[in-house]
Amino acid sequence: MSDLKPHIVIISASVREGRKSHRLALYFKKFVEEKNLATIEIVDLNEYQFPIFNERLMFQKNPSEKVLDFSNRIKKASGVIIVTPEYNGGYPASLKNAVDVLYDEWQHKPIAIAMASNGVFGGTQVITSLLFSLWKIHAIVVPAMFPTPTVDKNFSEDGVPVNKEATDKRATVFVNELLWFLEAKKRMQS
């Protein structure tokens, strides 16, 4: 990889009261910073509180400052880690809104998906519907996924894993896959 570090945006998708998937977003931020792999920030959809989707940004007459800010953060990102909970076998409306409000910003953007659930399957049922939406907008979804079962038992509220060694080992594979795609995209654009 080149000397210039990529910039990764972590989208923390849950806006639910008492959410637990945000713990995973906090973990990935700390992990990437500790390993000095990239610059990184969390874009917390709970702070944006987008209204129900009514039109793509490019067609909005008077877009809100929050939508413009979100668009700029995604544009500037080399890649994205989406941290999503699983609600009833799917992903939350907050994430669907965030995906749908943009279009050009997602074009060929490498995206890695980390899923969290309170159950034993780790959010894996989210993948089918989320992948389809991301493919339709021409994002590049990396093959590595990060399912996280019983997230509330495996991470503290501030994102510290119960088993740091095992979690870091899985995270290394996951983040390295994203970094590989970021470097490949960079080389293709050279």
CATH architecture: 3-Layer(aba) Sandwich
Distance between the first and last residues' Cα:
13 Å
Give the averaged pLDDT, no decimals.
93
Main pleated-sheet profile: 5 strands, parallel
Query: Approximately how much beta-strand content do the residues carry?
Result: 15-25%
Radius of gyration: 16 Å
In the predicted model, the low-confidence regions spanning at least 5 consecutive residues are none
Protein structure class: alpha/beta
Going across the biggest sheet, name each strand in turn: 2-1-3-4-5
CATH class bucket: Alpha Beta
Briefly note the CATH topology name.
Answer: Rossmann fold
Estimated helix fraction: 40-55%
Can you say what the CATH homologous superfamily is? Flavodoxin domain
What is the N-to-C order of secondary-structure elements (H for helix, E for strand)? EHEHHEHEHEHH
Shape: globular
- The overall strand count is 5
Q: Given the structure, what is the number of helices?
A: 7
